[in-house]
Amino acid sequence: MNKLKNLIVGVDFSPRSLAATQMAIALAEPADAIVELVHVVETQLSDSDAAVLGKSRDEILALLVDEAQTALSSFAAQLGYEKLRRTVITGSAALELAKHAEKRKVDILVVGDIGSGSSIPPRGVGVTAYRLVERGPRNVLVVKPGHSAKVSSVVAAVTFMPVANDVLRQAHLIARISRAELHVVRVIPDITELRYRLAILPSDMERIFSESVHYNESRLKEFVDKHRIHDVVVRTSTLTGKPGQALVEYLQNENIDVVVLGTGTSYRIVGYPVGSTTHRVLNQTLSSVLVVRSLEPPP
User: Fold this and answer.
1) H/E/C letters for each residue in the chain?
2) Class in CATH terms, 1-145
3) Which of 7, 85, 153, 210 sits a CA distance of 20 to 30 A from 242?
4) What is the pLDDT of residue 54?
5) Strand partners, 198
6) Per-residue pLDDT, 91
7) Which fold has domain 150-299?
8) How far, in Å, CA of 226 to CA of 67, rounded?
9) Contact criterion met (CB below 8 Å) for 142 and 172
C-alpha cells in the first residue's frame, strides 16, 4: 500500500475515540483519504425488558440508532474534515467493527485504547481494542492519549519474518505522510537468554553475543536498504534485552508517537494470535500502536 485511501474509526463519543479520530484525520488529510466514523449500538435488551417499557425490542433499538445517528452527526461537525462518512450499526462492537472494516477493505482501522465508561484495565487497552488486535482486520491502530495530533516519530519494530516487510512499509507510509522521522528497530535477546537457548559454555558466550549483535546490525541495514527509503530520515537501532521490555524502554526514551509491529513473535501458536512482545507494548507503552497482522497461517 503506497497511499492511504480509506480509514475507519470506531467512535463511542468518549475523549479517547475523539483522540483516535483526530489521529485518523491527521493521517488521512495529506493523502485526501476518506475517514468513516462508525458507531456500534450495543444492546442486550430482551423482549421482556422492552415490554416493561411499553415498546417492542425493535422499536427501542430503532430509537437508539436514531439517537446515535444524531450524536454522530454532531461529533463529525466539530472535526472540520470534508471527506467524512458516518455509519451506525448494531451488534457487538469488536465483531461489527471487524466485519465492517473487511467489507470496506479499509487500509487502517483506528480505535482508542479504551472505551467510554471504562477504567484503565490491567493490560493497558480495553476489551474492544484488544479483540480487534487479536481478530480484526490486517492493520489496527490503537491510539493512546497524547499521541493524536502531530506525528513526529515512527518506529518500525521488525523481526526478520515475512511480516517485517509489511511492518516497514506501513511505518514508512505513516512517516512519509506525517513528514516524521522513521526509526527501524530490531531487538535481539540478551546474553542470559542466549546462554539458556544455546546451552554453550560461558567462556564462548561473549564472543557469540558480539558476533550476533554485529550480524543483526548488518542484516538490519541490508533489510532497510532493500526497501529504498529516500524520502524520510531513517535511523536504525539494534537493541539487546528482552524484546518487549527493550522496545517499551526505547519508545519511552525516544518519545515515539507511533510504533508499528506485527501481531506475534517468532512463535505463532494457534489460539494465541498476539505474541508476548506485542502484548507488552500494547500494555505498557504510551505510544500509539499499529499492529500489522501476518497473512501466513500458523504452523
Assistant:
1) CCCCCEEEEECCCCHHHHHHHHHHHHHHHHHCCEEEEEEEECCCCCHHHHHHCCCCHHHHHHHHHHHHHHHHHHHHHCCCCCCEEEEEEECCHHHHHHHHHHHHCCCEEEEECCCCCCCCCCCCCCHHHHHHHHHCCCEEEEECCCCCCCCCEEEEECCCCCHHHHHHHHHHHHHHHHCCEEEEEEEECCHHHHHHHHCCCHHHHHHHHHHHHHHHHHHHHHHHHHCCCCCCCEEEEEEECCHHHHHHHHHHHCCCCEEEEECCCCCCECCECCCHHHHHHHHHCCCEEEEECCCCCCC
2) alpha beta
3) 153
4) 73
5) none
6) 92
7) Rossmann fold (3.40.50)
8) 51
9) no
Q: Give the bridge partners for 27, in sequence order.
A: none
* Residue range 222-250, pLDDT digits in tens: 999 999 999 999 999 999 888 899 999 99
CA gap 271, 175 in Å, rounded? 33
pLDDT of res. 266: 45
Name the CA radius of gyration of the chain, rounded: 21
* Distance from C-alpha of 42 to C-alpha of 177, rounded to nearest angstrom: 35
pLDDT of residue 125: 87
* 42 Cβ neighbours under 8 A, 6+ residues apart: 90, 91, 92, 93
CA-CA distances (angstroms) from residue 101 to 22, 40, 111, 117, 228? Answer: 19, 13, 12, 24, 30
Cell of 41: 449500538
Residue 230 has, within 13 A of its CA and on its CB side, a CA count of 2
Give me the amino acid identity at 193: E
Q: Do domains 1-145 and 150-299 have the same CATH topology?
A: yes
Q: Indicate the pairing of strand 288-292 with strand 139-143.
A: antiparallel
Extents of the domains making up the chain: 1-145, 150-299
Per the CB < 8 A criterion, the answer to whether 52 and 68 are in contact is no
- The parts of the chain modelled with pLDDT lower than 50 are 122-123, 265-270, 298-299
